[in-house]
Write a structure and sequence with these properties.
Length: 349
């Protein structure tokens, strides 16, 4: 009973999109493409509608959602104040892959914010996302359109695989471009803090607002007695069925160690995959070697990351050995997602 709506992002059929917008307006759930990953939307101002998102994904209720708008003015009714730095970031990077945290107004239901008095807001740049939100006439709460804990969907087939039969409609609009979720930036503290690295990098932000901090929870395991600033960060994420192990170090050594561990584990009867790069893929022995792209093009690596994690599941591998990347630019987001997929399990070569 999930309705499939195919839309060409370069030639949007507004009649068809209106079917999806009406479902949103009337309290239903609709998955749709954004420039980062596919989202699962519902009317953010309607508690009953938002409940359906948590149910469809199997998402813990204390993990807050991002509210998506189609134009800048739409945020006024959702927030209490807009700081000068927020204004600068919005003007520079919206529409685009960055989410900002504001103090919320009373019209935002607590179910959206997981009980917090702040709200996360984003103005996406994907033409289907923007037109859909605009047509619906409401702000749209939307987490990534995957089952809770699974890699975020970058292709229609990922959404269908996870959510068919669990949501009212899926708008199919091709592959997403960025491939990792939006940067989450908290502007409610003195020094702005990145709670989740993403499409807009720390370097990009520092150019326009000066000093920016990174939540220490981003690249290391959060101690259980520490409350993470972004509640979502404490849950295992992006995990395929296989066990993921990162291998860190000089790339020549990494290749050696991965080949050695692969052989050992295969001897023990496990099916082992390797998450490689264009530069290294021919240096590994055996099967189930998948390249993320060239180390010289981290944007492509980011765009392929979740797709490749899902490909290892399709191949039913038991263990994935993965190379690491330098934590600069989009490399921060790549390493954050890899660390979470691996449950912080790293071997040093
Ligand atoms: O790119 C994206 O952001 C995608 C697309 C669909 O827009 N959405 C997405 O949503 O990734 P989700 O729910 O998978 O991740 C939202 C993240 C979580 O880590 C959550 O904890 C954090 O944003 N978040 C939401 N509201 C927050 C708040 N008020 N304070 C701190 N973190 C918040
Ligand atoms: Mg998510």
């Amino acid at each position: 009973n999930t309705k499939f709506i195919n839309i060409d992002p370069d030639n949007i059929d507004m009649e068809k999109l209106k079917i999806a917008a009406d479902i949103l307006k009337n309290g239903g759930t609709v998955a749709f493409p954004t420039e980062t990953v596919y989202g699962l939307g519902a009317n953010a101002l309607c508690e009953e509608a938002v409940k359906k998102i948590f149910k469809a994904k199997g998402r813990p209720s204390d993990n807050p959602l991002i509210v998506h708008v189609s134009k800048l003015e739409d945020i006024n009714e959702l927030v209490l104040e807009i700081s000068e730095k927020a204004q600068i970031v919005m003007e520079k990077f919206w529409p685009g892959p960055i989410t900002l945290i504001f103090k919320k107004s009373d019209i935002v239901p607590k179910i959206v914010t997981g009980g917090l008095d702040t709200v996360a807001i984003r103005l996406p740049s994907h033409p289907i996302a923007r037109k859909l939100i605009k047509l619906s006439g409401v702000p749209v709460a939307a987490p990534s359109a995957n089952l809770s804990g699974k890699p975020s969907p970058t292709k229609e087939k990922h959404v269908t695989h996870d959510l068919m039969g669990r949501v009212d409609a899926i708008v199919c609009g091709g592959d997403t471009e960025v491939g990792v979720e939006s940067t989450v930036l908290d502007l409610t503290s003195n020094v702005p803090m990145i709670l989740r690295p993403g499409g807009i990098t720390k370097e990009d932000l520092q150019e326009v607002i000066g000093k920016v901090e990174t939540d220490p929870a981003i690249l290391s395991k959060v101690e259980s007695n520490l409350v993470p600033k972004s509640p979502g960060m404490k849950y295992t994420h992006y995990s395929p069925n296989a066990e993921v192990i990162l291998v860190d170090g000089r790339i020549e050594e990494v290749v050696k160690v991965i080949n050695k561990v692969k052989k050992e584990k295969e001897c023990e009867g496990y099916k082992v995959g390797v998450m490689a790069t264009e530069e290294t893929k021919d240096k590994y022995f055996g099967e189930n070697i998948i390249s993320l792209g060239s180390r010289k093009d981290l944007k492509t690596v980011a765009a392929n990351l979740f797709k490749v994690l899902r490909e290892f599941d399709e191949k039913r591998v038991d263990i994935v050995l993965a190379e690491t990347f330098e934590e600069v630019g989009i490399g921060q987001a790549i390493m954050n997602r890899l660390m979470k997929a691996a449950g912080y399990n790293v071997i040093h070569a």
